[in-house]
Specification:
The structure is a single chain. By secondary structure, this protein is α/β, with parallel strands linked by helices. The chain has a single domain (15-385), classed as Aldolase class I (TIM Barrel), CATH 3.20.20.70. It contains 15 helices and 16 strands. The chain has helices at residues 60-69, 88-96, 99-109, 116-128, 139-151, 178-184, 197-204, 223-227, 233-251, 266-274, 284-287, 322-326, 339-350, 355-358, 375-380, and strands at residues 3-6, 9-11, 20-23, 38-40, 43-45, 49-51, 72-76, 134-137, 156-160, 189-194, 210-213, 256-260, 279-282, 298-301, 313-316, 362-365. An eight-stranded parallel barrel has the order 6-7-8-9-10-11-12-13, surrounded by five helices. It has a two-stranded antiparallel ribbon with strand order 1-2. Strands 3-16 form a two-stranded antiparallel ribbon. Strand 4 and strand 5 (43-45) form a beta hairpin.
């Protein structure tokens, strides 16, 4: 399988969200009557959308608000939330800086050491507010931080790195033994990130409850540009779903697949589920929320209507509240708001009453799906033609 890319060398063709479309089903369902919930361990979460563990997206207040709306947000245990008693001031400074200045500021922000007492405090703050406490750490700190978070009442723990494998080799530091770590954790365990079938199966076999899929697709990720590493998310998700179902058949245990990154609008999220995801992790959409720690401000490219030189970076304000972005009502016409509503509507078109049903949707290769017949949208700078 694969296509020749040169003499004696083949490469497998893979696909991203912009290259496929979903085919409506033979039966349609009232969107208000579909079930979008997903499970991790013994927990059932109503909305299968996770806010990514980014300092500019999730703090304790955001995590509580996300939980109350039905989703869940992941707090980064190695960012500003555990280095500063009050990180709001430094985050506001970064949000107001130019992209060039922000990089310099970020390098300084992470110089202060992590305060372990703040790990417990942040988990306790989320729980006190009635939220689901989902926190993350890299493999090298997972054992220590996992124990602290679990003792503080954490609900879900995530071990996350750019590329995660069971068989990691290093003489500089101790490798995390996922099998032993699973035994130490009494709460659901999420691990990522991965994109290959063999690694997916090996990680599932360690006893984890959920697996994050995606290397470099996120708006803030640079792996694909700097290292050239990654697999387009459609192919990566389909491969992960295949591994999940194969592991389920062999072990009788279901491991949730979470597509992480590369989704900025409702359509991309819907495609991820149709490709086999049980949940998705989104960052950039929530970074623009009024409640985001960074104030919802971000830097983007100037639009043609701003009469600025091509490629000029401009500071963009909030696009809505967390509630509007997650569950609506939408006030934008580009698919960046009411993400859960988009998911329910799409499930209704597919005739899928559950996420598992949705995963069986028919998919077609359609590289022109975003541009076909959209000339007037582009001319008027509306809908998906914006920016």
């Amino acid at each position: 399988m694969g296509e020749w890319i040169g003499r004696g060398r083949k490469a497998r063709r893979s696909y991203g969200f912009d290259e496929i479309a979903l085919v409506p089903g033979c039966v349609t369902i009232n969107p208000d009557e579909v079930d979008t919930s997903w499970r991790i361990g013994d927990m059932t979460i109503p909305i299968p959308i996770i806010a990514a563990a980014m300092d500019g997206v999730v703090d304790t207040k955001f995590a509580v608000a996300m939980s109350k709306l039905g989703g869940v947000a992941m707090l980064n245990l190695e960012g500003v939330q555990t280095r500063y008693e009050d990180p709001s001031e430094v985050l506001a400074e970064v949000a107001a800086a130019t992209p060039e200045k922000a990089t310099e500021l970020l390098q300084k922000l992470y110089l202060p050491p992590i305060k372990e007492e703040l790990i417990s405090r942040r988990v306790e703050e989320i729980k006190a507010g009635g939220g689901t406490a989902l926190v993350s750490a890299i493999p090298q700190r997972a054992e220590r931080f996992g124990a602290i978070a679990q003792e503080a009442g954490c609900d879900i723990f995530c071990v996350q790195s750019t590329v995660t494998t069971v068989r990691h080799i290093s003489s500089a530091y101790k490798m995390l033994n996922f099998f032993e770590f699973r035994k130490q954790m009494r709460i659901p365990l999420m691990v990522g990130n991965s994109v290959t079938q063999e690694v997916n199966l090996e990680l599932m076999a360690t006893g984890i409850d959920a697996l994050l899929i995606g290397v470099g697709p996120g708006a803030a990720c640079t792996s694909r540009g700097v290292l050239g590493v990654g697999v387009p998310q459609v192919t990566a998700t389909v491969d992960a779903a295949w591994a999940r179902d194969k592991y389920l058949k062999a072990s009788g245990r279901y491991v949730s697949v979470i597509t992480d990154g590369g989704m900025s609008a409702g359509g991309d999220i819907c495609k991820a589920f149709a490709c086999g995801a049980d949940a998705v992790m989104v960052g950039s959409a929530f970074a623009r929320a009024k409640e985001a720690p960074g104030g919802g401000y971000h830097w983007g490219m100037a639009t043609p209507h701003q009469n600025l030189p091509r490629g000029t970076r401009v500071r963009v304000g909030v696009t809505g509240t967390l509630e509007e972005i997650l569950v609506g009502p939408a006030h934008m016409d580009d698919g960046s708001q009411n993400l859960h509503g988009a998911l329910k509507t799409c499930m209704g078109y597919m005739g899928a009453s559950t996420i598992r049903d949705f995963q069986e949707s028919e998919i077609v290769i359609a590289p022109a799906i975003k541009t076909e017949g959209k000339i007037f949208q582009k001319a008027q700078n509306i809908g998906m033609a914006k920016n």
